[in-house]
Amino acid sequence: MIRKAHKRVEKGEISPQNRRGHDMNLPLANILHHKLRSTLSALGIGIGICMLVTLSGLARGTLYEVADRWEQVRAELIAYPDIWGDNLTTLSGVGLPDKYAGIFAAEHGALVERVAPAFLWHLKLGGQDQTVVGVDASDADVVFGGRDLLEGRMFDPDSRFSRWLEGLLLAPSSEGDAPLEIAPADLSAPSHNGLELVIDSRLAAAGGYRVGDRVRAAGHEWSIVGIVPAGGMARVYMPRRAAQFLFGSGDITKSTILFVRLRPGADPSAAARALCKPGVMLVQVRQYRAMLEQKFGVLFRYVDAVNVVALVIAFLFVMITLYTMVLQRTREIAILKSSGASDAFILRQVVCESLLLTGAGTVAGLAMSFAAAWAIEAAAPLYTVTITWTWVLIAVGAAAAGAIVSALYPAWRASRVDLLSALTLE
Fold it and tell me: Does residue 272 sit within a domain?
């Protein structure tokens, strides 16, 4: 094909007047003439594009999925100890005393509709660490985002376990009473079993869990009693009193954070200032995304750096391929110049060839990205790969810029071919 194209030039079929209409014919012929080399070049670009779109989608998708779930909480404010500063995204364990729930409701009843204490911890389920939320059954709708159970029942539905533990630990003790000891078996007694979990549907699918299954985590045996639709604040929920006792060193008077739901029409910013107490920080739930980005945003920079390196290597390969093709086509380039082709025409041919290779590689890379996203989520269901139009456009723009830059030197080298020397050597 390439030989036929150049013979047409030699015969004058592609003249300076009609040459512009054949600008894409010669580059396409050159690419098809070197099928293996062109395929490898396009594949190299495709791998770079696939890495850019897939890694960015994995890093940002997984992190933003957490932020999306927190934004489903049915509250406007989060209260936590001010000594933790902006570390809300990594909070767990003992935090604010539960008494603040009553204080907020009593002192600011005109602003506060409801306060839901929550104890945060981490358990390993489904092959990875999961944030677990200890919450009272009556407040579960706050962290579920208003979702109803798909199957099973709520943990500690009648608060039997909570009342039993409160009666043991919060009841006034007499002088000389022996220290109270609660055995693990006491926590799971049939009359008031507190070692119960509700998990979301995504974790249930990933781990193959069903209602009635027993799982071991954090040194205890837990019963899965319910499954809630995915999209709530966390993937694992348990009775708050059980979380406080097991993970708060036996202190059931403190939770990690308090969710504050405001009355309709209340301004969250003004309410946060009004509810502020010494030692207590209040932030809006919608600020959690910005906090998450600030805490883990460095991950994005690492991923972007890897993507840049991958793309640079891919386009260096394209540049070497084009340069090699130019060296191999010295005679053909000389014939084009002898027929009246200008340096601009030669430059345009090489750039078009680079754009064609890059276009094919970009299409292949985007196709591989969607395939990779599907494969990742199939192999690791708890990861989220989000491919957005923004990153598709970034990939296309980066590919176009890379195609032009990688073609500059080979194009310049082609335009500098000496007609007499090339034909003499041939």
Answer: no
For residues 40 and 102, state if they share a domain: no
Q: What's the rounded Cα separation, in Å, for the pair 235 and 129?
A: 10
What is 143-206 written as a DSSP string? HHTTPPPSEE--SSTT-HHHHHHHHHHTSPPPTTPPPP---HHHHT-TTS---EEEEEHHHHHH
Same structural domain for residues 59 and 81?
no
How many angstroms separate the CA atoms of 230 and 407, rounded? 49
Q: Are 369 and 48 in contact (CB under 8 A)?
A: no
> What's this model's pTM, rounded to 2 decimal places?
0.82
Instruction: For residue 341, give the nearest of 3, 12, 19, 5 by alpha carbon.
Output: 19
Q: Is residue 364 part of a domain?
A: yes
Number of domains in the chain: 2
Q: What is the pLDDT of residues 19-61, one digit of tens each?
A: 444 556 777 777 777 788 888 888 989 999 999 999 999 999 9
What is the Cα–Cα distance from 305 to 313, expressed in whole angstroms?
13
Residues 144-196: pLDDT tens digits?
998 999 999 999 999 999 999 888 888 765 555 555 677 777 788 877 888 99
Render the burial of 179-203: b for 16+ CB within 10 Å, e for the rest: eeeeeeeebbeeebbbbbbbbbbbb
Instruction: Name the residue type at position 39.
Output: T
**Does residue 183 form part of some domain?**
yes
Residue-range definition of the domain harbouring residue 153: 77-169+178-265
CA separation for the pair 325, 340 (Å, rounded): 21
Q: Could you tell me if 99 and 31 lie in one domain?
A: no
